[in-house]
What does this fold into?
Amino acid sequence: MKVLITGANGMVARAAAEHCREIGDDVAALTRAEMDIADAEQVDETFARLRPEAVLNCAAYTDVDGAETHEAESRAANTAGVGNLAAAAAKYGARFVTISTDYVFDGANTGFYTQRDTPNPKGVYAVTKYEGERLATGRNAASIVVRSGWIYGHGGTNFLSVMHRLLGEGKPIKAIHDAYGTPTFAGDLARRLRELAELDLPCIFHVTNSGPGTSYLGFAEAVCEIGGFDRGLITPVSNDSLSRPAPRPASSKLACLFSERFGLAPMPDWKDGIKRFLESEKG
Ligand SMILES: NC(=O)c1ccc[n+]([C@@H]2O[C@H](COP(=O)([O-])OP(=O)(O)OC[C@H]3O[C@@H](n4cnc5c(N)ncnc54)[C@H](OP(=O)(O)O)[C@@H]3O)[C@@H](O)[C@H]2O)c1
It folds into this structure.
């Protein structure tokens, strides 16, 4: 399949490009410099030139705290950019898969959020991502929206992606004990994005590794258990103690109503994801 991947320098984009190349796709992975998704003209020109059969939109403004003071940038990528890609995909007949976030939910539900739950995003990043979901389906009814959360992987700069390095260097880390989510290895998400492009069912999917969900503290403890690091390096802290600019859901565990009904295999277990991540980081 001829696949266009956006935001090519990003963590999920890299995993998606690697997976698609491995399975023999003709991959065009474009950085922001090569295609700014917020620029409708540039997006249209790129689609006209490359004629992709499928688009995996991994580009986004992902600085959750920064979005509070950079609303225009967040909206440009997370809303307008998604709309531009959705419209171009409809015009040029490409399948369109775009990634959204568990942060569309407010966190009041301590169980699993499914597609039956009504989003109530808090904070600029979350609001602009949700607006992106709506624009995607509004401009292109065939859009496939993939909500994921707590993603970690190679090249990632978020806490979940770097903590093993700090622990490996014997450095102490702080891990939140009272915020819960469903961790997702970028490599597993990438594989599922490609499967969903193949399946071509316009729908909202929730894609995370399987398991009961955990806290940041639970994730850090699992990394210690699997990687053989010293648990004593972890200091549990509360969500509130960090006083970050953007609100975050206290619990945003995701479950999918559709994937298995549509014949997709269950996602790998979350600890298995960590194990494969740590093994592959060793090279
Ligand atoms: N990481 C998580 O835990 C998490 C959780 C839930 C959902 N998600 C979603 O998963 C997707 C992938 O996230 P990620 O963690 O891989 O993000 P990431 O590593 O921050 O990568 C995002 C990429 O998008 C690029 N980008 C930003 N604005 C762009 C634009 N206007 N045009 C083209 N490219 C642009 C960035 O380029 P620059 O480097 O040049 O800015 C960056 O390379 C995003 O939709 C994100 O919202 C992530």
Q: What stands out?
A: The first strand starts at residue 2 and ends at 6. The helical segments are 11-22, 40-50, 71-92, 124-139, 159-168, 186-199, 216-227, 270-282. The mean pLDDT is 97. The pocket of NAP is lined by residues 6-7, 9-13, 32, 36-38, 58-62, 77, 81, 99, 101-102, 129, 148-151, 158 (CB under 6 Å).
